Amino acid sequence: MHARLRPLPASLRLSFALFLLLPLPAALLLQAAAPAPATGPGPTVDRVGFPVDYQKTFQPLRTFNRAKPRNLITVYANPTAAAVADSGDLPYPHGSVFVMEFAEVPTGPDGQPLFDAQGRFQKGRVTSLHVMRHGEKFGEAYGPLRTGEWEYVEYRPDGSTLTAPKDSFTCAACHLQAGASRDWVYRGRFEAPETMK
Ligand code: HEC
Predict the structure, then answer these.
(1) Does 43 map to a domain?
(2) Mean pLDDT, range 8-32, rounded to an integer
(3) What is the C-alpha to C-alpha distance for residues 84 and 51, in angstroms, rounded to an integer?
(4) Which of 12, 72, 73, 182 could form a disulfide with 8 if both were Cys (CB 3.0 to 4.6 A apart)?
(5) How far, rounded to the nearest angstrom, does the alpha carbon of residue 77 sit from its chain's CA centroid?
(6) 63: nearest Cα among 117, 102, 32
(7) Which residue range(s) make up the domain with 138?
(8) pTM of the model
């Protein structure tokens, strides 16, 4: 009699508990699979090229503070890209290059960022250059993420790559959202798209 009233034997309880837990690992696996893929379509060779003299020969288009992560950002265009000042002249001519330069911001003794007279961050060490170049038949390798005839690379100031061509689908994927009407350049000399305001 007693045996019937007793709760489930320990072994059965364990199976039941495991049964309840079963869906959990599956859900965790799905979550682990969700983050952006580490690989994607992209060029195998670098046709962008490190812009050796950009600080001397390119035109600075704008400089702005970014709070998180804290950087002073400067966008430059080479003379070919800088010559496009009318949206009727888009797409950009082959040979156009844009550079987005990221610099650290020096801090004072209180740990706060230092500003210049215009309220911009002071410029510290340059850490990274986002570079995009327009060329004939460029961009094919990005497949569905293709943004016209642009290819992308991220360099360190010493010319080594931070985001190699084969990994630069991440750049293309985001610039795709800038759209064909501005030749996938977010800003250049033009107003920012509505989505950025
Ligand atoms: C999450 C979205 C995103 C990703 C990823 C991204 N960009 Fe951009 N990029 C932007 C936006 C937004 C701007 C405009 C910023 C501004 O002017 O305020 C921009 C600007 C630029 C510019 C200046 C010309 C322009 O479009 O206005 C260059 C050059 C550039 N990006 C290159 C790259 C490269 C190279 C990579 C990959 C290493 C990259 N970007 C990854 C969003 C992105």
Answers:
(1) no
(2) 42
(3) 19
(4) 12
(5) 18
(6) 102
(7) 54-196
(8) 0.84
Rounded to the nearest whole angstrom, what is the distance from the C-alpha of residue 157 to the centroid of ligand 1? 17
- Which residue has its alpha carbon closest to ligand 1 atom 43? 174
Using the mean position of ligand 1's atoms as its centre, give its distance from the Cα of residue 160 in Å: 19
67 shares a domain with 27: no
Same domain? 59 vs 17: no
Backbone angles phi, psi at 98, to 5 degrees: -115, 145
Residues 89 and 125 in one domain: yes
Q: How many domains are there within the chain?
A: 2
CA-CA distances (angstroms) from residue 149 to 76, 117, 153, 172, 178? 19, 40, 14, 11, 14
